[in-house]
């Protein structure tokens, strides 16, 4: 056998094995091998593909990370039009639908399939010879955007189907792309921390994500997909339910909530069952879809111009509640923006008890003509964030007091300002307003900034409240203040060790993330990367004018003015000097960029012993710039112990005891992106981990099907 054909065989075998393992892991919650073994197989395949790019298979499991940049999405015609469904909010309408079906089928027996209506974005996928070849959005129903690179990043979506099973050679799968609620909430929490506008609901978030031009950013957003129909050129199945079962067998994600219903009253049972239960699901649903099961009967019933006559969507009414407005609190954010929050008499709404609702800004309070003591209507926008939509004026109590919007900061008393064109009032006391200082510290230690292990938002907030830390630079004094730290309650020796190791390690965090962590208004992750890549270091940035900065791609005038102003402030210059003395990275290091990715996101490492190919600092920097964390002590939560020469036997024993994998320096390097995947610092740092994340501690769980 020639070398090439042996290599090809190995590539094929690895590809097949990894596809199989992914299927087991994501669709069936089964881990056949350890994460480490999985990583090794993936690394082997990556290496072979790097050495023989011509032999790499188009749907290789190494190609899920994204990295494709699409300037403008091409469009494609749908082979079968993507119609929408007729909607109803009433049970009577459902009964009428059933009567129409009965009439249309001329008395023949029939049954239904009921499914949840997932609130996401419709997607059409094409599988040819078992390979995912195209993903197209609904568009205008006849033509949509080709977003294949982006849908390929959806981890639960098989790129290659399992062989066999009398599968059609060419078929289309329709379904819904969505963002799981916990991911949506995390995304919004991050946006709030960064002072960015919040996403209204998971559907908008999913649709915006699908349209991102950089698929590596899409990968980081953790989209999911549920299939709800299978289309083939000929008639391949007798019923819709048989098609759903086949999709499941092929390895496609199908929500297992669907049920057959023999009668309309069984349909209504399904509707009633999910009316409340749907709020327990980690995905937004806005109704139920009812479909005639038999495909021949579907054809018989046919279509109107817009929608099928054999299906209907029942939408749950947006849930609203009436409750009393007791107080309005004012939150002060990192940038000084003041946001009013309504404090309500607790009221159950759409699966949760609502106690607070956002009021957005002063304009909204005025527009609603709100008074303290009013009975107000609360709704969940897109089922998620409660908001006040109106006042029950008939029930207004005699003494209801108009809301006095504060003229001074509720936290520090400084008169508020409202810059022209902005909806928010702001506290201009950037240097002394406690909630602003605290929020800036929380931002500095946050995951996408310095990501300091052992120092989360809560701990740094505690240090702030105790007066121990006021600015990010104070964090670097903490290791020398151990005697003080040990006197604090709920902070054991081990936590202090971790904290100190985390702080020391954060000195290796690359400059763009430090710049982002400084919390300059409007300077998000991407802008920080652009500025860092252009100026290479803080010194050049400190003397740059707003005009100069505005000329850097993606740095607009407003951002440039804010950044230039920030660098001129004496206290910020002082902060920079102190960070410099603390040894924090204030320059882009070296000629070649350190490989950067999120490949090690969620993983923690302990380094022990002496290493051959890299210094310990280099290894730390590699781990951190790929999203991992360094920690000081070995616990059962540790992901890897990286062992060098002369590693202490106690460490080894402890790691073995906790079943923590012990890996070598070479193993560590194999976990990192291959050199051809190394991004220049201009690119976004979000890159999806290639390997499946470790199953949650609670047992095999929620990685695959959500419900
Ligand atoms: S069936 C002919 N089933 O709801 C239309 N649609 O207007 C076939 N949707 O945007 C659609 N969950 O993407 C169907 N289980 C489900 C669904 C579902 C959500 C979406 C669909 C479309 C809208 C229907």
From TrEMBL:
Region called Disordered, residue ranges: 679-707
Signal peptide coordinates: none
Enzyme Commission number(s): 6.5.1.2
Residues annotated as catalytic: 117 (n6-amp-lysine intermediate)
InterPro entries to which the protein is assigned, alphabetical: BRCT_dom, BRCT_dom_sf, DisA/LigA_HHH, DNA_ligase, DNA_ligase_CS, DNAligase_adenylation, DNAligase_N, NA-bd_OB-fold
A Gene Ontology molecular function term of the record: ligase activity
Positions bound to NAD(+): 35-39, 84-85, 115, 138, 176, 291, 315
Domain BRCT, residue spans: 595-665
Keywords: DNA damage, DNA repair, DNA replication, Ligase, Magnesium, Manganese, Metal-binding, NAD, Zinc
Listed SMART domains: BRCT, LIGANc
Catalysed conversion reaction: NAD(+) + (deoxyribonucleotide)n-3'-hydroxyl + 5'-phospho-(deoxyribonucleotide)m = (deoxyribonucleotide)n+m + AMP + beta-nicotinamide D-nucleotide
Binding site for Zn(2+): 409, 412, 427, 433
Required cofactor names: Mg(2+); Mn(2+)
Function: DNA ligase that catalyzes the formation of phosphodiester linkages between 5'-phosphoryl and 3'-hydroxyl groups in double-stranded DNA using NAD as a coenzyme and as the energy source for the reaction. It is essential for DNA replication and repair of damaged DNA.
NCBIfam families to which the protein is assigned, alphabetical: dnlj, PRK07956.1
Family in the record: Belongs to the NAD-dependent DNA ligase family. LigA subfamily.
Name this polypeptide is given: DNA ligase
Taxonomic path: Bacteria, Pseudomonadati, Bacteroidota, Cytophagia, Cytophagales
Protein encoded by which gene: ligA
